[in-house]
Amino acid sequence: QVQLVESGGGVVQPGGSLRLSCAASGFTFSRHGMHWVRQAPGKGLEWVAFVRHDGLIEFYADSVKGRFTISRDNSKNTLYLQMSRLRTEDTSIYYCAKDGGIEVAPSEFDYWGQGTLVTVSS
Amino acid sequence: EIVLTQSPATLSLSPGERATLSCRASQHIRTFLAWYQQKPGQAPRLLIYDASNRATGIPAKFSGSGSGTDFTLTISGLEPEDFAVYYCQQRSNWPLTFGGGTKVEIK
Predict the structure, then answer these.
(1) pLDDT tens column, A2-38
(2) Which neighbouring-strand residues pair with B103?
(3) Which of A15, B8, B64, B99 could potentially form a cystine with B88 if both were Cys, beta carbons 3.0 to 4.6 Å apart?
């Protein structure tokens, strides 16, 4: 069965950096695009970033563009999110999510991890 | 950016009743819309994709309809486990966006 397990969350000061990981299993990781989606405490869902199956194309939400970098290592079945210049408003649960399709265009998020909490606070 | 507006924000219903949730897009998105359910402390779960297709393992009491800018999620015969927050999401254009959510609560 598909499993996505995030790690790397924690408390970081404003302006700091953090790298999240998402270990994937139960499907052919290298065939699917992957996403990061976040949810601030008590708020709704916000899509953050997407990386194509081969890692060669990325898209970002404007709110994180230039500060966050999504990447993947298909040899390790792992997705990453490098976050820098963190702001208090980046405080959220960060979920990795599998793209349901195998095309270049995005599909729905058909599987989600349980999330990892990032708290940006001084 | 495509804005998705969900209504109502909160829906108060009794078990056994039918829930009708709305999602309106600020631009035409054909049928590139999905619905998710989220329970407290859990990750979202995909219910419907491409406006009307049930995801794997989703019971027939969940149905989706619509195209263009107006979409509906219907839950027939609410059961206790269906009381949750529901989000719509579009994949027609970057950036991908979600609606603000509809909370279905027990009346």
Answers:
(1) 999 999 999 999 999 999 999 999 999 999 999 999 9
(2) B10, B85
(3) B99
